[in-house]
Design brief:
Mean pLDDT: 87
Distance between the termini: 13 Å
Strand content: 25-35%
Radius of gyration: 21 Å
Helix content: 40-55%
Order of helices and strands: EHHHEEEEEH
Number of domains: 2
Shape: elongated
Length: about 150
């Protein structure tokens, strides 16, 4: 008898570890950009010292606003809570507030602790979900690994 996958259904929760890693990367980008703004060479000519300081301050404010806006808008695929159904190359996510995203699903990334899947909804566009053992729970992560293994064969 040939093994066949029945699909995958599981609840999605917010993974604080994944969000913390994303926030850490945003802050690392801010630190790197701040270091370049304040310590980098002045690219063109030699303006007055006060002009250089003003331009560096403006650049630093722009970088800081970009990081703050990025931190306020968490990626939907990291923080979406709801229910995921994935079967036969088709996926559907019903969020906790009732919004539904459905369409063709494709695997983007697979590693021991992270799986990325993109659902291409014709109406709202692509949604990439990042799934972890903490986001699905121990039993849900096992089911996902089994589903992926059976889907390959």
């Amino acid at each position: 008898m040939e093994r066949a996958s029945q699909g995958f259904r599981e609840c999605l929760r917010v993974d604080l570890r994944l969000l913390s890693a994303w926030m850490g990367l945003m802050l690392a980008a801010w630190l790197a950009a701040s270091w370049v703004v304040w310590s980098g060479p002045w690219p063109i000519g030699a303006p007055q010292p006060w002009q250089e300081t003003v331009w560096r301050l403006v650049a630093w404010v722009v970088v800081s606003v970009w990081v703050v806006r990025g931190l306020q808008h968490r990626p939907q695929g990291f923080a979406l809570e709801g229910r995921l159904v994935w079967s036969g190359g088709h996926g559907e996510v019903v969020s906790a507030n009732g919004e539904t995203v459905r369409g063709p699903a494709r695997l983007q990334w697979q590693s021991p602790l992270l799986v990325g899947v993109t659902i291409d909804d014709p109406a709202s566009g692509p949604l990439t979900l990042w799934l972890t053992p903490w986001r699905l729970g121990e039993r849900g992560w096992w089911r996902l690994q089994r589903f992926l293994m059976l889907a390959r064969h």
